[in-house]
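Risk register update: the risk that structure generation would not scale has been downgraded. Supporting records follow, first protein first.
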Amino acid sequence: MPKPIIIDTDPGIDDVVAITAALRSDELDVKLITTVGGNVGIENTTRNAVDLVTFLGKDTPIAKGLGEPLVLPAKTASQVHGNSGIGDYRFEAEANPDLLSNDNAIMEMKNYIMKSADPVTLVPIGPLTNIALLLKMFPETKENIEQIILMGGAVEGGNATPAAEFNIYADPHAAKIVFDSSMKIVMCGLDATRLTSVSFDDIAKLREQGNVGEMIYQMLDHYKQAYSEKAIVIHDLCTIFYLTNPELFQVKRANINVVTEGDEAGNTIADFSDEGNVLVCVDADVEAFRRKFAALLD
């Protein structure tokens, strides 16, 4: 039986690839997509989510979430993803307006989780603003959340600052709420995601696999400006591959403390312990990851 999941996202090029993989997986049942400000502003991330689901011919509901962090001013990564969030790519089909809920992301998540017959897995691949508010406003939802598998953080080094990974840096106060919640969490951070680069030869082969492959190719091609001409990293895809193939990753149990202030804001400090509530991905089977990426659209 497919695993029910909710994806909380700030599309974002790598978000688009992760969402596409999830929606095409027979092992996952994406019940809801919620948007958050992050890679670009909330209007663009929401538009990108609706455009993508329309393009893929799916009817997965989408709910617009928070555009601002809990405390700090908003930050974006438009220098990596482009002003729209998806490079120079443009979806040509008219977006399906029926996909977008009239209710906000927090309420939609709460309502689905509480009525679900099966425990739900949350997959946040952007800043954790929506997830933090869900847990604070509706703590009863914790009883029907199986786990949280998130892209964010790092044990060593960051990409937004020397100390912090972008998703955590963008809203460290929200991240602290989530990591301090005692929920079962899997942290797919930079320690593992940086290892899982894919070559542009593999990316180019996607062009042979129809309009979805062409879409992914064109978006990832934009990444050359931020990465290199040879290989790029698709950070958010690691969460989906962890869900379907956890054996690709080596994990260590830890407690995670998030620094919220000063030059170290966004730093995720790991205290490795058998008592920890977080499984930290510390290594990955790179060749197996690349093979799985190459078969993404099979």
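Supporting record for the second protein:
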Amino acid sequence: MNFVSVRIITGAIARLVDFYERVTGVPADWSTEDFAEIRTASATLAIGSTRTVPLFSPGSAGPADNRSVILEFLVDDVDGVYENLTGIVEEFVKEPTTMPWGNRSLLFRDPDGNLVNFFTPVTPGAVEKFAR
């Protein structure tokens, strides 16, 4: 088994795709007007419009309704990224902070309210864990 993607359902797909293109610097690959993907080396962030939900099961997912999942992105310099996100991100939850497990993390919300963590490993153990 290989975990390959996370999908966000949104009522404003163009807005959300634009946001993730801007914060990640990765252009989206649009399959249809209702589905796009931000592909990185290790995983894909899929973004689907609410019009895709009935393809799975009507009412099975809803937009802007997540309060339990954090989308996490490994970045080279979280402090530098934080400076670059000013003007793009409307709601920072936590400025860059070194966490007890050794990552320096920046938490913010996307336009739908999903929690996003950009992080950089800073302790030897965390650096080793994410060495490529």
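Residues 13-24 form the longest helix (12 residues). On this basis the risk owner (M.S.) recommends closing the item.
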